[in-house]
Specification:
five-stranded parallel sheet, 5 strands, adenylylsulfate kinase activity, Adenylyl-sulfate kinase, APS_kinase_dom
Length: 179
């Protein structure tokens, strides 16, 4: 029986969260799992809009919204992949305490590589806040994405989820069949 879960890909901007989570989603879908990506770069502004004039409060509100949606989807047997910086450790700890099946993947990447990947010029546009990030205290995995390709990183995540019993090798199985 498939169970939902949440995998949070965290790390500074341009560390590979969107790319790796997209590849993981593709692999999981090919295995027959129901998957939903919550990428903070792609979510509708209605979910991540500036709810407060204070940057810190906005960051926490955005994470609270992501946690709520992820928790709800995972209840319905969906594997939820969050691709969001999640700048504050307390927010990722909140997710861990609220969601029974939760995995945190820290994508660690050098500043030099992140700057090379900065096609949206985030590091230029937000110099006062872009570097603020509380590294995870105890992530289930740390992947140096400046040393491994996105495909290698995604494969490592899939292998970890299988090794830990969160997922099993499947061939496009569905839980409901029509007679």
């Amino acid at each position: 029986m498939n169970q939902g879960m949440v995998v949070w890909f965290t790390g500074l901007p341009n560390s590979g969260k969107s790319t790796v989570s997209r590849l993981v989603a593709e692999k999981l879908e090919a295995m027959g799992y129901a998957v939903e990506r919550l990428d903070s770069d792609e979510l509708p502004r209605s979910l991540t809009k500036e709810l407060s004039p204070d940057w810190t409060t906005r960051q926490k509100q955005k994470c609270s919204n992501l946690i709520f949606i992820a928790k709800l989807l995972s209840k319905y047997k969906v594997i939820v992949l969050i691709a969001s910086v999640g700048r504050f450790e307390q927010m990722r700890v909140a997710a861990r305490t609220q969601i029974e099946r939760y995995v945190e993947i820290y994508l660690k990447c050098s500043l030099e590589t992140r700057l090379q990947r900065d096609d949206k010029t985030k590091y230029v546009r937000y110099p006062d806040t872009i570097h603020y990030y509380e590294e995870p205290a105890l992530p289930e995995m740390t992947i140096p994405t400046d040393q491994y390709s996105p495909a290698e990183s995604a494969s490592a995540v899939i292998q970890y989820l299988m090794d830990q019993g969160y997922i099993a090798e499947r061939d496009n199985m569905t839980e409901h069949t029509m007679d």
